[in-house]
Amino acid sequence: MDANLESNLHQITFDSGFWFYIPEIKIHLKTKIPIFDNEDPLNFKAYTLELPFFENQTKEAFFYFYNHELLGFFNECSHIKVPMDLGDHRFFDQNGNLICRVHGATFCPKTGLVKRGPARKPLLKILLNFYQETNILVIRGFYHSS
Fold first, then answer.
1. For 49-99, what is each residue's pLDDT tens digit?
2. Of the chain's two ends, which shows fewer C-beta atoms within 10 Å, N or C?
3. Cα–Cα dist 115/74, whole Å
């Protein structure tokens, strides 16, 4: 893991549909975030990182480049609050959709919107900036796509 974050150092505030970290989380990445490979989506492994969450907890998030855009989501199915992977950092089905490997719900890999149930709500998407020249990831907050 690139960062050792203490969740009690970050406050989470809500404004206009977004939860924001105060202060923003800045991480100098030591490893590269993988580029999604549509040729072999079942074996693709995303980059994972623990982020502060509510009530001084942390929650795993996963990140990947998709069509030249860095995307991130919390690793929690919106159907039942369980991790979407099976502990192996694999989040895609054979069609290139995000999948909860526990109950089979699928989500759009770009937005986190539900494509097929049993989930009804989108995934929590990470609001971020990435500075490739310095390899710095800035986590600003998170939200539900609509």
1. 999 999 889 999 999 999 999 999 999 999 999 999 999 999 999 999 999
2. C
3. 17
Helix H, strand E, coil C: the string for the chain is: CCCCCCHHHCEEEEECCEEEEEEEEEEECCCCCCECCCCCHHHCCCEEEEEECHHHCEEEEEEEEECCEEEEEECCCCCCCCCCCCCCCCCECCCCCEECCCCCCEECCCCCCEEECCCCCCCEEEEEEEECCCCEEEEEEEEECC
Tokens at residue 45, please? 């492994």
Q: Examine residue 83 and say whether the peptide bond preceding it is cis (omega within 30 degrees of 0).
A: no
Question: How would you classify the pairing of strands 114-116 and 106-107?
Answer: antiparallel
Question: Tokens 């040729």 sit at which residue?
Answer: 39
- What the block records as the tokens of 12 is 């989470």
Q: Which two tokens stand for residue 69?
A: 């855009």
